[in-house]
Amino acid sequence: MLESLTVETITELLPLFGILVLTGAVAGVLAGLLGVGGGIIVVPVLYSLLGFLDIDDSVRMHVSVGTSLASIVVTSIVSARSHHKRGAVDVELLKSWAIFIGVGSILGTLVASAVDGPVLSAIFAVIALIVALYMAFTPANFKIRDGLPGKWLGRLSGLSIGGISAMMGIGGGTLGVPYFNAFGYPVHRAVGTSAAIGLIVAVPAAIGFVISGWGIPALPQASIGHVNLLGLLLIAPFTSLTAPLGVRLAHVLSPRALKLSFAIFLFATSVRMFAGLI
Q: How far is CA 125 from CA 24, 101, 130, 147, in A?
């Protein structure tokens, strides 16, 4: 539902608006730099801000995830286009995996809509921690093998990446980057391809979160289902503006520096989410 905001309410929320704008700008850089769609920073920031506004715990994480996914639709388009211009997107892989990523995204959305907010927060924190440790402590040349798994096993991987990403409210990079690296992809190509996967994940998932939250009375103002339009309007334009900057940084940094920056950020995010659950 979309409710009107009074002038007094908007004035009181101006500092929070500034935080959301800054979050969008930082998320855009990270989207281009790491291929993560920006959700890995948008979700915890929105979760904290909604808590500050005393939004009910039953919907707080769901709104954070749904709004993040809606913003990723915009961010991923800009980020993926920038990476594609540099030849860093595996188009053939996307053609093969797209339907499986999309189905996984829908399944993940259904699961996320059915579980409680704290459970969704715990899923986010655990997966972020696992990926952070993997990226930080695997050697720079670590790989399971050269080349992706066979046809159907690879597509099952796409299904899993789509499902888990939708549940977490993130793009494809948090899982896609380490996955592709483990099978011998150069890190820049892994980042670029993951940025494109984020779009395939975000579109059906964002629609699903709108539908699953439709008519719930505990939602914050200016929400359509589990997507908060005010947060979306403050975040998405700035992620789009700064995503190309992240892409340029990604192609300047060394692969090891890129992996470590990814790991450090994920670890910090995981710790913050665990702290909120205690």
A: 21, 22, 9, 30
